[in-house]
Automatic annotation (TrEMBL):
<dbReference type="Pfam" id="PF22691">
    <property type="entry name" value="Thiolase_C_1"/>
</dbReference>
<dbReference type="InterPro" id="IPR055140">
    <property type="entry name" value="Thiolase_C_2"/>
</dbReference>
<dbReference type="InterPro" id="IPR002155">
    <property type="entry name" value="Thiolase"/>
</dbReference>
<dbReference type="Pfam" id="PF00108">
    <property type="entry name" value="Thiolase_N"/>
</dbReference>
<protein>
    <recommendedName>
        <fullName>Thiolase</fullName>
    </recommendedName>
</protein>
<feature type="domain" description="Thiolase C-terminal">
    <location>
        <begin position="283"/>
        <end position="397"/>
    </location>
</feature>
<dbReference type="GO" id="GO:0003988">
    <property type="term" value="F:acetyl-CoA C-acyltransferase activity"/>
</dbReference>
<dbReference type="InterPro" id="IPR020616">
    <property type="entry name" value="Thiolase_N"/>
</dbReference>
<dbReference type="InterPro" id="IPR016039">
    <property type="entry name" value="Thiolase-like"/>
</dbReference>
<feature type="domain" description="Thiolase N-terminal">
    <location>
        <begin position="7"/>
        <end position="248"/>
    </location>
</feature>
Amino acid sequence: MKMNAYVAGVGMVPFGKHLDKTLKGLAGQAIQLALNDAGLEKGQLQAAWMGNAAAGVVTGQEMIRGEVVLRNMGIGRIPVVNVENACASSSTAFQQAAAMVSAGYYDIVLVCGYEKLFHEDKARSLGAFSSAVDVEDPDGAVNVVKKLAEAAGEPFDAEGAGTTRSVFMDIYAMMARKHMKRYGSTARHFAMVAAKNSRHGALNSRAQFREEMTVEQVLAARSIIDPLTLPMCSPIGDGAAAVILVSERKARQLGLRNPVRVAASALVSGWDFEHADDSVGALAAGQAYEAAGIGPQDLSCVELHDASAPSELMAYEYLGLCLPGAGAELLESGATALGGRIPVNTSGGLLRKGHPVGASGCAQIVELTEQLQDRAGARQVQGARVGLAHNGGGAIGLDAAATVVTLLVREDLR
């Protein structure tokens, strides 16, 4: 979908383990930071889209999640739309809000993604992920892994899936094994992704993990499920990120400096594949590229859904950063690292920045906005003009249940 909305301000709290903070407290802090960044007051907001995935499971807050957050800040009267779409919750909220602004319904709106996944009862945290599949399937999440294992020609042992580890790590492991068999990628390549993102995350003060790791350290870490070691798996976390979107008219009135425009955003759902090369991510990316009149060759930087290290390498291919099967070669060339041709996950990605699922999509927009406005500090991509955000969520069949791809461009309103 072609868009014409502008990012007026962004805010994000550091991701991590925040057992001492409330869900609405984290969200409120991010929202206030975004308002301050935009130079706007909360009373100027005309509507809000609030993205959260797991509060019902982890904290027990259901139904009025966004209203609870905003009322705590003294914000009422305005329309509040609560968005839940697995790990793509806040990117979906962003896509819907940008569409409404582009259509002319609002001039100033809020988008916020927020989540608390840490809990004293670890079963609650794992339960949040186990619900992001078709639970009416008799075998639930395990059946998704079985289908992927069959497609990869791999045996599957269900022990530990959804109990000692997130079942999604089993899902990513089977996808990785299929890629390894088909294209020759290796565990070392996946370790290279994790090490690269650790270098990026070390430069990000809001990242959950700030330690640099070598490829050897990643490979030697505790095994989760072959071929994934712990640093190849995104961690659970708590956090919040917020974005203020405005219309072009309001952007001109505000005199935005280095304005960032939402050029396109595509939200798609999965389907029953007929061809082996189909993917939800490729469909979303293709729609976004076409709507914006932008191609992969135009991108300056990318924030993509590296819920596992293999996920990043495979996304290189279906986002069009390289040809199918050439992800490992692109990685080895250094192109996706800071200083390379197309830096990917300069924030540290989900692997190092963290993955409080409802907040992850908005956090990608925060990173890209700061990159396009030359305020990313030590991780700045020089001359960044076009950014792509890719965020997936849930699993049905052989792929994500939902995916959002958004294109942001820096442009001069004068």
